[in-house]
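Thread amino acids onto this structure.
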């Protein structure tokens, strides 16, 4: 039984959006959807509530029902493409797969698999990422990205395991910005790109705000950065 406070908290979740910038003269606009909760007049990621939603399937059913209604309504009128974060934990909940199957605007929604390790899973013990589930989502017509590559589940091993079904790699600098100089950070990103280049994946760099560093990146790399786009409320 879901208590009223939890139900109200889920009903009061919002989506912000941040632009993913393409510098190859593409006319297709793209954004990442960012889940937010209002706390003391500020909109922040609802960390505690989100943890509860991910580990309590009854709460998750309510959550996925809410975002399904929002996204079907919003994207119906949109020409932009949106990226939605989905935790691996959610792939083991039947309502997630049902939502993705029923969703009316699959061509406007990319799936970003986040790096968090699931608490409950029923795939083979030796298989960290559920290949068959991800294959089925790809076959529904969704493009799939590995978010925060090299963190958590989203390792090189997972890229190799899931390679046919992954179209995009997102490299985040947030874990390293405080410990690496700009030149080191640039070298790190370029080294990772060189290693994954044979996989022929689209690359998005997330969290770089320094103009000088941004200018060193190949124009084929997409950018998600406060330098170019501050998140703003979408719903």
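Threaded sequence (235 positions):
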């Amino acid at each position: 039984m879901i208590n009223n406070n939890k139900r109200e908290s889920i009903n009061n979740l919002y989506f912000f959006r941040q632009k993913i910038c393409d510098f190859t003269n593409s006319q297709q606009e793209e954004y990442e959807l960012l889940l937010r909760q209002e706390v003391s007049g500020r909109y922040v990621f609802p960390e505690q509530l989100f943890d509860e939603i991910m580990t309590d399937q009854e709460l998750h059913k309510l959550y996925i029902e809410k975002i399904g209604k929002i996204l079907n309504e919003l994207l119906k009128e949109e020409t932009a493409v949106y990226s939605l974060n989905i935790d691996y934990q959610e792939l083991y909940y039947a309502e997630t797969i049902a939502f993705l199957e029923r969703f009316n605007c699959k061509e406007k929604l990319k799936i970003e698999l986040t790096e968090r390790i699931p608490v409950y899973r029923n795939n083979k013990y030796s298989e960290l990422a559920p290949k068959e589930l991800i294959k089925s989502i790809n076959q529904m017509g969704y493009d799939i990205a590995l978010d925060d590559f090299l963190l958590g589940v989203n390792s090189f091993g997972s890229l190799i395991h899931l390679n046919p079904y992954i179209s995009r790699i997102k490299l985040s600098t947030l874990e390293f910005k405080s410990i690496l100089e700009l030149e080191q950070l640039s070298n790190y990103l370029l080294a990772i790109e060189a290693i994954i280049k044979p996989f022929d994946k689209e690359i998005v760099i997330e969290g770089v705000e320094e103009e000088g560093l941004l200018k060193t990146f190949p124009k084929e790399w997409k950018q998600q950065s406060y330098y170019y786009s501050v998140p703003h409320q979408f719903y």
